[in-house]
Amino acid sequence: MIQQVEPWVVLSFCAAIFFIGFAGVLIRRNILVVLMCIELMLNAVNLTFVTFSKELQHLGGQMSVLFIITVAAAESAVGLALVIAMFRTLRGVDTDQIRLLRE
Amino acid sequence: MDISPVFFYLFAGLALGCSLLVVLKKNPVASAFNLVMVFFAFAGIYAMLDAHLIAALQVLVYAGAIMVLFLFVIMLLNADVPSFDLQRSHPGARVVAGLLCAVLLLAFVWAFKNSPSPVEPGQFSASRIEAAGGNTRVVSELLFSEYILPFELTSVLLLGAIVGAVAIAKRKQKVGAGGGVK
Question: pTM for the full model?
């Protein structure tokens, strides 16, 4: 039975979530799923901040997370507005349809 | 760290599985609901790490506001048909992306495992936070004293985001029909 969780296990878990989100950004074409993967990456970084905040006994990490959550909310609002504008122009939500400059 | 291993591995496994499903599911609605599960699992881990205010905000802001926004846009655009974009992407690109992420992840794990333990702990130990009135009180007092300038700046940022989102998503009126409005 594992007695306790080492900090590096928690940090590695954060890195795993971050790179799952990163892979999603790289391979997915649906812009909505790409935005969701960006949220996933932001969450992974938040958990890293909180882990270090606990380990170093310093609350600066938790303050950073508060501001990151605010910025993420603003980012997703503007990002989804951009998705709506893109859907009006292209009639689709796939990023490989964005080739107006090539034509 | 003094957190319960059983619950940590439960939440971590849930988050890992659901985040893989976010990437792999074809239907954006299914991805969104898996993302909600990831957010709840993260909120559980925050609560275990003594970040109670962050855990509550995670549920309220992420699992509440942001996911409602996502689902609203998916339904609004009628984009909840399964798109087979995963198959359409270049197979080489998928392999390169997977390998890149795996290598970077291994590098991060190696770095975390072999990094030295922190220099000296700060002043906010668990017992002192408990004595000062709990996590939420201490964080709030810091937010309104030491971090007051960034706190006020986020309100300006949110205002800018509201104006920007409305200006971008607003339906453009036709020239002539709108009476000279471009």
Answer: 0.88
Rounded to 10°, the helix A31-56/A7-27 angle is 160
**What's the ipTM?**
0.91
What lies within 8 Å, CB to CB, of B62 at 6+ separation is A39, A43, A69, A72, B39, B42
Contact call for residues A3 and B5 (beta carbons, < 8 A): yes
Does residue A68 sit at the B interface (CB-CB below 8 Å)? no
Tokens of B69: 């926004």
Q: Give the model confidence (pLDDT) of B90-132 as tens digits.
A: 778 888 888 999 999 999 999 988 887 766 777 777 777 777 7
Q: Between chains, do B49 and A51 touch, taking CB under 8 Å as contact?
A: yes
**pLDDT tens-digit profile of A29-43?**
888 999 999 999 999
As a whole number of angstroms, the distance between CA A73 and CA A39 comes to 9
Contact B142 A59 (CB under 8 A): yes
Q: What is the DSSP letter of B162?
A: H
Find chain B residues with C-beta within 8 A of A80's C-beta.
69-70, 73, 165, 169
> CA–CA separation, B49 vs B68, rounded Å?
27
What domains lie within chain A, and their CATH numbers?
A: 7-97 (1.10.287.3510)
CB contact under 8 A, B51 and A93: no
Q: Name the average pLDDT for chain B.
A: 84
**B1 with A77: Cβ contact below 8 A:** no
